[in-house]
Amino acid sequence: MKKIRYFLSIALVVCLFSSCAKEFNAVYKSTNYDYKYEYAKECFANGKYVRAITLLEELVTIQKGTDNGQECLYMLAMSEFCNSDFETASTWFKKYAQTYPKGKYAEMASYYAAESLYMSTPEPRLDQSQTVLAITAYQEFMDRFPDASLKDQAQHRLYELQDKLVKKELLSAQLYYNLGTYFGNCTNGGSNYEACIITAQNALKDYPYSSMREDFYLLIMKSKFELAQQSVESKRADRYRDAEDECYGFINEFPDSKERATAERFIAQCKKHTAEE
């Protein structure tokens, strides 16, 4: 009896699916665009985004210039977003903003154009071109709609994305430091420690209020000390003095740092070398 009920249930699902598929195909082939538009709205409302996209891709062209035109374009963009095709969604949201700059959904389209880019940004280790585009899009949204209801959310996203760029720089600086004495990548002279210092210093200039400031300062301090240790005799004293100054600067900037003991240890070692001069 249980097997019979199971197979009946399966048969019912198959019949319903077949019926729905036939209904959709009939709508898709129909030239009654008002009916097709209403059906697409129903699909969107019920979360059937793939079907909505299939219909709306045709309707955005046919309905352009009509009362339903801008809603078709916005629904298409939002369907792509909800279907997790964020790159395509961003393209459609931007198109809406350009086509209907004062449209009913202009504010939301501008926000979701940025949100779509945000959703497709990669992890910090990878290329951050998409992150830069997302930051620009959020900034444009806030400039255009300064009183928008989603302004705080956009600002929060902006901070997140900026932190991702800072993290990218921190990982780059850390990589140079970890490479240490390896010279295989120093084709233009210099050293990995010098590259670490420059990368960290540039990041501090670009992002002076980052929560990762201490990490950058620590890398600079450690790199200057390592650079002094490896220096030729003619440069050693000056570099130890520079490293010592950096250590004092680190302690002054972060007096409660967990790395204060490291800075004090470096200072003691630097003094030994500078005292000999």
Structure characteristics:
277 residues; mainly alpha
Quick summary:
The chain has 277 residues and is mainly alpha-helical. The chain is built from 12 helices and no strands.
Characterise the protein shown here.
- The protein is an all-alpha fold and 277 residues long.
- It has 12 helices and no strands.
- Helix 3 (49-62) packs antiparallel against helix 4 and helix 5 packs antiparallel against helix 6.
- The protein is elongated, with a radius of gyration of 30 Å.
- The relative contact order is 0.05.
- Residues 11-18 have low confidence and may be disordered.
Cα-atom Rg, whole angstroms? 30 Å
Cα separation of the termini: 98 Å
Number of helical runs?
12
Structural class: mainly alpha
Shape: elongated
What is the secondary structure topology, with strand pairs?
Layout: H1 2-29, H2 33-45, H3 49-62, H4 69-82, H5 86-99, H6 106-119, H7 129-144, H8 151-179, H9 192-206, H10 213-230, H11 233-253, H12 260-275
